[in-house]
Amino acid sequence: MKKMARGWKIALVVFLSVIISNAVLVVTLGIIYIDDKNIQYQNFVINHSTDKDTNLKIVHLSDLHFPQIHVNLDAMLNRIQQEAPDIIAITGDIVGTRSTIETSGVYEFVERLVLIAPVYYVNGNHEVNNNGGWSLYNGLEERGVILLRNRHVNIEIGDVTVTLIGLFDGPYGLPFYTPAIYKNEDISNNYIILLVHNPRLIWPQVTENLRAIAPDLILAGHVHGGQIRIFGKGILCPDRIFFPSFQNGMYSAENERDTNMIVSRGLGNSIVPFRFNNKPHIPLIKVLF
Prior knowledge:
The chain has helices at 2-37, 73-83, 106-113, 125-129, 133-142, 199-207, and strands at residues 40-47, 55-61, 87-91, 119-122, 146-147, 151-157, 160-166, 191-195, 217-220, 229-230, 233-234, 249-252, 260-263, 281-288. It is of the alpha/beta class.
């Protein structure tokens, strides 16, 4: 009888272990499914402390990785249109390294996006490594996307002049934030926004004074929020760095312009083909002048 009772106990433990394991698996798969499809729209307000009474609204998109994007694009575009942004900033990895550009869906997407607001774009490491990268850049420009290929443009928002600077990634990009971008133009009185893909490459230049003129705002992506997030911390960076820095949200520097950096967790996937506890992310930014 004792052996039979012991056998029942072992069988019960095994049965409960299987049930619990399956339940954990179902919950995990459910979180992955939800996280891949449901976007977190996060509001950021930056008070630039002037008396201009002007606002700048920015929608920040990053790391879409077409076609490895699972969100509802129709719903996303409708939400972006409802936000009525002044500009839309894309900070790289709009396609994946192995994506076939013409069939990825990226062109159809940007054709609709440019109807909402001016779209400004810098590339990421995936475009650099994609064999069709240069044809992609031409295709984006033909469809009205403004490429900030190591250059700047000035735009007028109310009575404020905003300078948008873009640093391209890869061997043809500038490795440092240099005066060459400005072509000797004095932009020090403008509100300066820098678009760059990898925040870990640019932030030391801002905080350690290795730049010509610090930007007021940096927009970046690349880190995917750590892809898998546990207790509010991302585990893995696309660079295969564990627990990467600058993975999500806003960071501030104590310099002469009090630079802020906003990092998007991105929208698509790479390396790890899913997200966990890490919904696709679109920062909605309002700068108050």
